[in-house]
């Protein structure tokens, strides 16, 4: 009876912390969405909201990390349960960093607005990449909620598309700066924004990797994106 009680309580603890992770993920999604809307509309007030909300994510990360430490200390999980707790700890780190990137987008957007340079560069690739990155984040959290390794593997290849948009936009910025030196300042702001978007995609991809680690016990972080995506889909 005692073992059953402990096991049941362990499941309750795991479910509670997993729920917190998904709640944090929803907050990060909202932050990224707000940051990209602030950029699309050059809305300084919305950018301010993103910067204020970022502090809440830091507090939630600390809270969930403490929960994970307590679970390990009190329950001493093994095998898949231990992988889940470890992956949760790494997932919230990536979520917090994705939130940081949203904060960077908001700050750079305010700089562009303050410099009255809002429409000096066509940044359609960044808007597209931002939508793609937030979609990847949503899908990676869904894969985490369902522990769906196949869905997680598909995210690896889709992250490559964000990288392509980023590289294409960088080439455009270089051309703009070469043709008109007056665009250098605003081009650099857009470069930082594009890099932040690309990193959000990377954090979503990292979360997908942790899902595969939980389900299969395989650490694929140091393989090439295409190689590991194909491998996991076929396995």
Can you give me a brief rundown of this structure?
The protein has 235 residues and is mainly α. Helices cover 87% and strands 0% of the residues. α5 runs antiparallel to α7 (225-234).
Would you give an account of this structure?
The protein has 235 residues and is mainly alpha-helical. The chain is 87% helix and 0% strand. It contains 7 helices and no strands. Helix 4 packs antiparallel against helix 5. The two termini are 38 Å apart. The N terminus and C terminus are likely disordered.
The low-confidence parts are 1-5, 229-235
Proportion of residues in extended strands: under 5%
Specify the number of helices. 7
Series of secondary-structure elements, N-terminal to C-terminal:
HHHHHHH
Query: Class by helix and strand content?
Result: mainly alpha
| Biggest pleated-sheet summary | none
As an assembly, this protein is single chain
- The helix content, as a percent range, equals over 70%
Number of strands: 0
Report how far apart the termini are.
38 Å
Give the integer mean of the pLDDT values: 89
Global Rg: 20 Å
Q: Indicate the overall shape.
A: elongated
Keywords:
235 residues; mainly alpha; 87% helix; disordered N terminus
How are the secondary structure elements laid out?
Elements: H1 2-41, H2 44-75, H3 79-114, H4 124-146, H5 149-179, H6 184-216, H7 225-234
């Amino acid at each position: 009876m005692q073992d059953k009680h402990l096991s049941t309580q362990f499941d309750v603890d795991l479910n509670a912390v997993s729920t917190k992770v998904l709640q944090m993920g929803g907050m990060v999604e909202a932050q990224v969405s707000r940051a990209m809307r602030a950029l699309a509309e050059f809305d300084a007030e919305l950018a301010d909201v993103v910067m204020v909300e970022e502090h809440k994510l830091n507090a939630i990360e600390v809270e969930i990390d403490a929960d994970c430490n307590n679970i390990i200390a009190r329950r001493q999980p093994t095998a898949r349960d231990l992988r889940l707790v470890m992956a949760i700890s790494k997932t919230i780190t990536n979520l917090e960093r994705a939130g940081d990137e949203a904060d960077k987008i908001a700050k750079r957007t305010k700089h562009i607005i303050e410099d009255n340079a809002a429409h000096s560069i066509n940044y359609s690739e960044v808007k597209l990449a931002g939508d793609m990155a937030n979609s990847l984040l949503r899908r990676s959290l869904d894969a985490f909620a369902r522990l769906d390794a196949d869905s997680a593997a598909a995210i690896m290849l889709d992250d490559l598309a964000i990288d392509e948009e980023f590289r294409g936009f960088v080439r455009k910025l270089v051309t703009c700066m070469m043709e008109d030196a007056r665009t250098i300042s605003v081009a650099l702001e857009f470069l930082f924004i594009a890099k932040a978007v690309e990193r959000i995609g990377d954090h979503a991809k990292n979360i997908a990797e942790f899902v595969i680690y939980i389900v299969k016990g395989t650490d694929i972080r140091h393989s090439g994106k295409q190689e590991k995506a194909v491998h996991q889909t076929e396995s």
